[in-house]
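Open question from group meeting: does this chain pack into something compact, or does most of it stay loose? Before anyone orders reagents, we agreed to write out a predicted structure and look at it together. Recording both the input and the output here so the notebook holds the full record.
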Amino acid sequence: MLFTINELIDLVIMILAIGYIFSTFVKRKPISGYDPLAYYQRQPIIEDIKYGAMIAAPAIVLHELAHKFVAMGFGATAILHAPINWYIIIIIMRLLNFPLLFFVGGYVTHTYLPPLQSALVAAAGPLMNLLLFGIARLILKFKLVDRKYYEVVAISGRLSMFLFIFNMIPLPGFDGFHFFTELIKFIF
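Structure tokens returned:
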């Protein structure tokens, strides 16, 4: 089975939390000629959450799913988790207008794998972000989507590149740390 019920619930929570958190950073622009009264009667908070999720969720959710599926490909049992307690803290901070100091998108736990395989699982998430960045660049370069989606694709691509670089930092808790420590175990 690819997903448990708990994982599907965590995926929904993850997408909604990411949408809300990022909706405060990336504001959608009203289309030209819009009616301000109609705009604000449409529950803009829901629209803002959808916009934030469209931009950030693919980069974050696919990052975590890459970890899960690569671990499963090596025969491990892998479980996706939404860090609900962290989401609550971050959402409260956002409601209190604190600047976002940190963000945990999600995490995957898996059964034991040998060092090389474990290193590849750690690298899978950031490599997915690098792939998403490349896809976004190609979409923009070859104008593969309607112009009204360019901003969403551009921001999502930049976020994916940021996540690739950020996650490959070799500090404890980051994918880069797990990648390099497991690679060192494999080599030595």
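Observations to bring back to the group:
Helices lie at 5-23, 36-41, 44-73, 84-95, 115-141, 150-167, 175-187.
Residues 41 and 81 are 35 Å apart (CA to CA).
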